[in-house]
UniProtKB/TrEMBL annotation:
InterPro entries: AAA+_ATPase, ABC_transporter-like_ATP-bd, ABC_transporter-like_CS, P-loop_NTPase. SUPFAM superfamilies: P-loop containing nucleoside triphosphate hydrolases. It comes from the Bacteria. Keywords: ATP-binding, Nucleotide-binding. SMART domains: AAA. It comes from Bisbaumannia pacifica. This is ATP-binding protein.
Amino acid sequence: MGEALRLEALGIGALVGVDLTLAPGEVLCLSGASGSGKSRLLRAIADLEPHEGEAWLGDTARSSLPAHRWRARVMLVPAESHWWAERVEEHLAVAPSEADLAALGFADEVLGWEVARLSSGEKQRLALLRAVAVLDERPDEAAALLLDEPTANLDEAMTRAVEAWLRERLGERGWPTLWVAHDPGQIARVAKRHWHIEGHRLVERETRPWQ
Ligand SMILES: Nc1ncnc2c1ncn2[C@@H]1O[C@H](COP(=O)(O)OP(=O)(O)OP(=O)(O)O)[C@@H](O)[C@H]1O
């Protein structure tokens, strides 16, 4: 189950020569100063900006697929999600299960809410639910997740709930996940490996074992 996500000599902006392999189901945390290129690296992996190098999901090279098909499997959840519909249910083409909604603190009624009323944290949680629901639609296809500070707008209790929910999903589905995070506590909780952007290079940092 699951396929590895491999980055080969990936380069965007000042950040070049990124070689990294994430095993199926592995969470790897990425940190770096503001403006060091974390979001751009995720955008390059999702093929949303011109870049150097190649990315692979299992045996499938990014360049061998039309961009929209790659992005449907290598799913970016940006720090600020984009909303195009008036109501939550129109935006979530694939409705998350009741259990998943509940795990992230929502009752079913949320599907009928207007997007305009959503708080930043509600938007962030719904964007995660949406990404997972879309990938779950095709359980037989390999997939990967790119999460850009997925708990940045959440309080401590909800942060822990999101971490637990994501860890369970990623473990079950075998999706390799690149997770941008700043909090050393979170990094230690969710990832076995931690890379930091330092002087336009990726440097591995120690992290405590997965607990
Ligand atoms: N399309 C672009 N063309 C040129 N430079 C860009 C482009 N998009 C972003 N940048 C610049 O690249 C640098 C890295 O931006 P990025 O958004 O990846 O930073 P970040 O590490 O995610 O920062 P933060 O933690 O503040 O979100 C920034 O200096 C930004 O201004």
